[in-house]
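In the design runs reported in the main text, the only information available to the sequence generator was the tokenized backbone. The following block is the verbatim input for one such run; it is reproduced so that readers can re-run the procedure and compare outputs position by position.
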């Protein structure tokens, strides 16, 4: 597959080495608004100057590629993905799918109408730990998955992206940027969807964010389980892993996932039984890219495709509406 990478600075630095190293991918073009960064990356990865652009529309018209990889801020995803779909290009985009639910739906509709793939990089699903936890649940370690009682997730980091970074300035940064990882993991790990969400946000006095970087959510799940989430992007001191600290409760006991790994505690005991992490040849973004290629070659929809991802990003926007109303919001109200 010949791909054009859109955004090669910042987070793009995590993508280019993986795309370049994949034996079934050729980087056929690069786009970035910073000409100096663009020239540097093009030289580093052997992309010809005539295949490098500072303007996305020009790149789309001239580049010889089958797909675009969008590593751009969320507000740009919809116009770029829709234009790519109209040009007959498959789309692999960084999360979140978009910064509004309306744009996210428009992206999905445009790609379906053009019969091209739209895949969202939910790379936290692709960690060995997340895949191990999912496997353990499917193997009834704490009991049948349909008898899962509750799930709790804690996420605490003190992350300063800089005064001018879009995350520092945006509204509800944890919810609308980072939160998609955790709510998508909730769906993946439990094999269930969120039916409704009740959310509150908060702004600590010491925060360096312009808007609320703290978030509390309660979920009603389609399998009858209850989920709880508490997180903050300006909480230092014994920080959690990026994937969060998890507790899942079933009829046989509890399963824990934190910085110490994954373990099971049987009912009636505090003794932890470690669950070995499964080994995979690749994970994270590399596994996302590999799934994109496999789906392309086999003519199927990829995992975390746009239509499915609406069920994850819909949680974010239901939470946003819940914060505004100070009341629970059903995802069905939002059409997802």
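Verbatim output:
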């Amino acid at each position: 597959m010949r791909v054009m990478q859109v955004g090669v600075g910042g987070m793009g630095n995590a993508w280019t080495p993986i795309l370049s190293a994949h034996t079934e991918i050729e980087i056929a073009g690069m786009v970035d608004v910073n000409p100096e960064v663009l020239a540097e990356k093009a030289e580093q990865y052997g992309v010809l100057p005539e295949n490098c652009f500072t303007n996305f529309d020009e790149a789309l018209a001239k580049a010889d590629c089958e797909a675009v990889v969008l590593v751009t801020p969320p507000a740009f995803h919809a116009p770029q993905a829709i234009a790519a779909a109209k040009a007959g290009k498959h789309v692999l985009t960084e999360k979140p799918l978009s910064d509004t639910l309306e744009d996210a739906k428009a992206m999905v509709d445009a790609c379906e109408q053009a019969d091209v793939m739209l895949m969202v990089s939910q790379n936290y699903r692709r960690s060995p730990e997340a895949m191990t936890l999912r496997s353990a649940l499917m193997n009834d370690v704490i009991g049948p998955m349909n008898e899962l009682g509750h799930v709790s997730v804690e996420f605490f980091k003190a992350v300063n992206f800089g005064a001018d970074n879009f995350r520092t300035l945006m509204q509800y940064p944890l919810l609308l940027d980072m939160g998609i990882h955790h709510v998508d993991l909730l769906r993946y790990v439990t094999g269930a969807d969120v039916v409704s969400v009740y959310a509150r946000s908060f702004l600590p006095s010491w925060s360096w964010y312009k808007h609320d970087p703290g978030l509390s959510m309660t979920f009603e799940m389609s399998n009858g389980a209850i989920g709880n989430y508490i997180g903050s992007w300006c909480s230092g001191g014994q920080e959690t892993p990026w994937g969060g600290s998890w507790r899942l409760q079933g009829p046989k006991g509890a399963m824990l996932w934190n910085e110490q790994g994954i373990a099971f505690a049987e009912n009636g005991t505090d003794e932890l039984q470690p669950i070995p992490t499964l080994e995979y040849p690749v994970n994270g973004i590399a596994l996302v890219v590999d799934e994109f290629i496999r789906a392309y070659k086999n003519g199927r929809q990829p995992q975390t495709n746009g239509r499915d991802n609406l069920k994850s990003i819909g949680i974010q926007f239901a939470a946003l509406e819940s914060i505004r109303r100070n009341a629970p919001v059903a995802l069905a109200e939002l059409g997802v």
